[in-house]
Amino acid sequence: MPQNQRKVPYSGKKKKDQLIKKRRAKMSQKFLNGASDGETTEDNELTSGKLMEQPLNRGGRHKNVNRYNLQFYQESKKELEQMKVEGYNQLDGVKPKMREMDAHYFDGYDFPIRPNWSYDMDKNILNLNENRYFKEYVENLQKFHKEGNNELSLFELNLETWRQLWRVLEFSDILLIIVDVRYASLMFPPSLYNYIVQTLKKHAILVLNKVDLVEPDVVVAWRHYFLEKYPQLPVVLFASYSNTSMKGSARRSVCYKLCMEGVYNIYKECQKIVNSELDLTSWEQKIEEDMDTGNLIDDKMIVQTIETTEEISDDSVSKPYQKFSNGKLTVGCIGFPNVGKSSLINALKGKKVVSVSRTPGHTKHFQTIYLTNVVVLCDCPGLVFPSATPKHLQVLLGSYPISQLQVPYRSLKFLGEHLHIPNLLKLHLPEDFDVWSPAALADAWALKRGFLTAKAARPDRYRAANHLLRMCLAGQNNIILQFYPPGYNDAKDFWQQHAEVEKVKRYQNIPIEDEHLMSNNEDTSSINSESGESEETTSSNDETNADEEDEEMPHASTSKRSNAFALLDQD
Asked: How many angstroms separate the CA atoms of 281 and 371, rounded?
């Protein structure tokens, strides 16, 4: 120690103050002035935070690994305590008509669009204008909810993610709006479609994904709902799963055929839009070759994609948009998280080029993939658009990571009131409960699967609840929550006898012995239903069946199959 310099004592109080400063430095930014610890005494005090943050030293010295993380509003401690109390309330069964959904949750809502800019504008000034615009947009949206005394739903608060959408909208010639057919109207923002068609003067194609998870007549009803509401919007069906009892190579072969038929329908719609301005013969030949030989391979292949991050953003300022630039068709894929955009791109490419996961926000930034020399795909990260959709319903839609839920009871309550979970999973009411409640469902499933705490060996309630929500998201064990278009239940007989139902069944490849499983799905849709117990699907004692894991693309079939679903073929 140097002379004439005494060691300064360091008390515990100073150490505590130092920790508080560090904690405040790591806290998420706030759009309104509120309590620093996340507590809110009024509805207008909101805080936001990024999810699944990684250590800053993982991505290198000059790389921000948390730049594209999902960012949502956080619940206050008061709200969390209220959710815990609601977990013991009795479940009240609802009728299937309550699942008829239109687009009323999007009424009065738009989405952040890129502010006015020019190619002569400096990059720093452009970034400053975008930050100022986005902050004002969020503040105005919060003011709108405060005046109406409404609950603000979850939507993306990360400006970097919205910038990815802006660039995909600017570069693409045709936009594929991908939605999960189970929640079709909740994932199709009318403001996005109007902006693409009216403002950008571009073409859009609606892709109803995961059609093999719902009943064929519901698929037909949703297709006609969008065709009647948006006459100029083409609607294409696509299947990401195989709703059959086959396993192994036979199941992968069926999945591959379903994917290729959906790809062929997308190609035909793009061909109608392009017409004679561009020759897409190479794309058609590629699809025929994939049907014959199949290029889908396993996860061990080397991913060869052109990741466009900073480089493409710099070029966007210097190169204006040109239709079919350099004789190439650019197709953009946009939509909510967890709708299957990456699975669709892998099927379009014919092999796995982007990783697939059930975790929202898995795709961090948009990337370009060349299908042929004249067709380019743009994969955009999934975004949660502003709406009035309840938060517990957004969890079931896959818009919010289930692993980040602090209290899962509200989402489990909604699921238990629309599906007869005890009947589907053959659960017995635990001794500590008199009636079925979200907590009772979680305890019963924890006891059945052996989810116990380490020390006291009590039912691990949160782990079981998260596992049930994951199974609903993946459509496992017949836990499929599906919504209907308006007026579906009143005209159910009409839709079941519709001429297109048989074509959808052939596309879904539903065996005769499996049809009753889908037709009886409504019989177990209420907790007060009197239907018999269904057969339980065997599963392992771990969470791998419902966890977020990469889905393998199915292997190719050796035999060529013609296009079974040709509803969109008007030739």
From this structure: 12
Residue of 53 and 31 predicted with greater confidence: 53
Taking residue 298's Cβ as centre, other Cβ atoms within 10 Å add up to 10
Q: Give pLDDT tens digits for 447-475.
A: 999 999 988 899 999 999 999 999 999 88
Q: Which helix (H) or strand (E) holds 17?
A: helix 12-26
Question: Percent helix, strand, coil in the chain (nearest 5)?
Answer: 40, 10, 50
Distance, in Å, from the CA atom of 492 to the CA atom of 217, rounded to the nearest integer, reads: 8
Instruction: Encode pLDDT of 502-528 as tens digits.
Output: 999 888 875 544 444 444 444 444 454
For residue 341, give the nearest of 326, 316, 325, 358 by alpha carbon: 358
* Helices 249-274, 341-349: crossing angle, 10 deg rounding: 90
**What are the CA-CA distances from residue 155 to residues 152, 241, 242, 302, 373 (Å)?**
9, 27, 31, 34, 37
pLDDT-derived band at 565 (thresholds 50, 70, 90) equals: very low
Residues written for the chain: 571
Q: Is 63 exposed, middle or buried (0-12, 13-18, 19+ CB in 10 A)?
A: exposed
Least confident of 72-76, 195-199, 235-239, 492-496: 72-76
Would you put residue 386 in left (φ > 0), alpha (ψ -120 to 50) or beta? beta
Which whole number is the average pLDDT over 416-434?
Answer: 93
Domain boundaries, the chain: 108-379
Print burial letters for 186-212: b (CB count within 10 Å at least 16), e (below 16): bbbbebbbebbbeeeebbbbbbbbbbb
Cα(523)–Cα(273) distance, integer angstroms: 43
Task: Quickly tell me which residue has 């391979």 as its tokens.
Answer: 297
Query: How many Å apart are CA 89 and CA 74, to the nearest integer?
Result: 24
Per CATH, the number for 108-379 is 3.40.50.300
Would strands 329-335 and 203-209 be described as parallel, antiparallel, or unpaired?
A: unpaired
Asked if residue 196 lies in contact with residue 226, where contact means CB atoms within 8 angstroms, the answer is: no
Instruction: Report the C-alpha dihedral over residues 148, 81, 459, 479, rounded to 10 degrees.
Output: 0
Q: What is the widest separation between alpha-carbon atoms in the chain?
A: 96
Find, among 238, 233, 464, the residue nearest to 344 by Cα: 238
CA-closest candidate to residue 228, choices 485, 500, 492, 497: 485
CB–CB of 168/196 below 8 Å? no
φ, ψ at 49 (rounded to 5°): -155, 150
Q: How many CB atoms lie within 10 A of CB 567?
A: 16
Q: Please name which of 352, 333, 289 lies closest in space to residue 172, comparing C-alpha atoms.
A: 333
What amino acid occupies position 539? S
Contact 407, 83 (CB under 8 A): yes
